Amino acid sequence: MQIGTSQFYATGASQLGKLSAQADTLNTQIATGKKITAPSQDVVAYNRLSAIKQANADNTAYASNISLAKSLLQQSDTTLTAVTSQLQRAAELTTQAANGTLNDANRKAIATELQSIRDDLVNLAGTTDARGQPLFAAATGKGAVTQAADGTVTFDGTGEVPAIPVGDGTDVRATDSAQRVFGGISDGKGGTTDIFAVLSTYISALNAGGTATATAASGTAATAIQSALNQVSDVQGSVGARAARLDIVSSQATDAAGAREVDRTALEDTDISTAIVDLQKTMTILQATQASFTKLGQLSLFDYLK
Amino acid sequence: MSDLLGIGASGVRAYQTALTTVSENISNASTPGYAKRTTDLREIAPANSLTANNATTTGQGVSVAGVTRAADSLRAADVRNASADLARSETGIAWLDRIETALTGNQLGDRLTGFFNAAKAVAADPTSTTPRSALLEQASSVANSFTATGKALNNLDADVDATADNAVATLNTLGASLAKVNEGLGRVTPGSNGAAQLADQRDAILDQISAISDITVTTDSVGRATVKLGNAGGPTFVEANQAANVTFARGTDGTVSFALHTQQAVSTVTPNGGALAGVIDGAARIADARTKLNTIATAFTDGVNAVQAQGNDLDGKSGAALFSVGTTPTDISLSLTDPRGVAAAGAGKGVRDNSNLANLDTLRTSGAFEANTTALISSNASTLANRKQVADAQSAIRDNAVAARDAVSGVNLDSEAVDLLRFQQAYQASSRVIQVARDTLQSILDIH
Fold it and tell me: Which residue of A has its CA nearest to B370?
């Protein structure tokens, strides 16, 4: 078969062009560190990378929710500890007040201290959280509790604040309503009351004077305060459990993110050592092709026609 | 002795022509479409008269019968077919590549993910307006992304039209040129240099036409080409000195078509190769991508607006629509500007509720907008990857066809060098014959 001169050059140009393109592709892969620059280069990898990217973005959103929920639970825990110590002091005072040797003046002094404990509890109930919202807010209503001019405390709104999403299909309730923390205490007559009403009634009883009244009221109040303490302790336990659950969710998310990163690297990142070896191979072939092309191109019968 | 002079003179003339042909070959060694030519030499037979018809009668020298073009019509047809197949794939690849850029350039999938994740932040802090504003920003970038992707596809349509118009204009020019070449071929003497030149032009034009559309070519005895677009049953584009006119049209439904107009009739062209077929493929792909994108856009805007309507905003009012849709499904704009308007709460559940955002998450799963966007890009990408492989194979087939054709018709400088030497020697020898003839005659004249 005869090779046309023009064809010889065309073939040479096309071969050298292909090798240069191959070297350029490898060079780009090494320089960018990415094997895939367009979906069409590897459709399967592109699909998986899209899913990984989406999961990573979800993970970031969930991580910020987890950190917010953790801070809210932490704040709940601190506030509930303060509530517990106030209630414990109130419980001690009921024991003191029940003592028959006290006179009315002594009991008034106890009543004054109880009043300040009650004020503290109202303040604690109205604590503001990291978001600027009442920490013990219900689903509805403006604040957590409202104190009327006569000192009566009412719970704002009803229902528990909905849970915060912290993972796919996983959500955690970060706060509890004031009703759940301070209300729902048995009034001993089959109904329920709240800690503020219990303290108000008790303070009035102590101020009213009379040992018999005070002793009887102290007994009732002691039972109610104890059940309030138990309730706060339950809530605090639940807060702790939820914080522990967040830790698990968060560490699971970190593990999953690590696994995804391994997948992503395998799919997307250039294997530098292989790429460099490939590049070296391509360059060697390119140089050899250039050399042989030049040699063949020099051959011409016209050189011998003198 | 006079015939000896005549024979020498005929040799000089013949080899001069032969040397001219070789020089022509050498100077056109890299001219595209040039087929190697050879000079046909023929002995001048002795006159067949009664007196001359004896054993000692010799010939009268050499003459040039014509110029032969080293061409193989079958191999040329192979090259044309392979070129048409390759041009179709390459044109298609160019469009698929641009569709890929149009679909991925605006990062629609990422924007959708960002939107749904912004809703998660609102769920964590429903009463604050900051995450709500962030959600509206994300909603706005989703809307922009849909709009920009839709526009990018529309621009591709405009480019397809421009490409098709250009291809058709080139095709018509080539058709007219071929008709002129045909006319020329009808007039020149077969076997002449002129005929070879016109045949070169004819084949070059046919090669160019085959890059635009697949063709079926038949040639008559003098080399005039009759071209049918598509297979042998296709409409006649060029016959003798008549060329038809091809037009491009885009229907109201967005489909593209080509028609061939002659003075007698209009017929439909169905190209199966060349750039025209690539244009039809590309237009179909763009239309397909747009349909799928519109489906995603409509499902997304309707779904999100429906979720908004189910819930209450921060002021306890029923949620207003988040997106409004213009003339096309991807022409999306944000109709809600107040961050308080995001309906995070379930109906009547209070300002701190976030249960309606869970509906948005359900919509994300059921609507699978991100997965559908990825699928749309993937389906185009896998077609593109596949076409590239096909094009690689077709490129190799075309290269082989070109090599096979050029093995017959290409100029090899080394063999031309050999021919140059051969004819030079023959020329010099013929001059010597003239000299010998003169010397011989002179020797008789010198007798006293």
Answer: A54
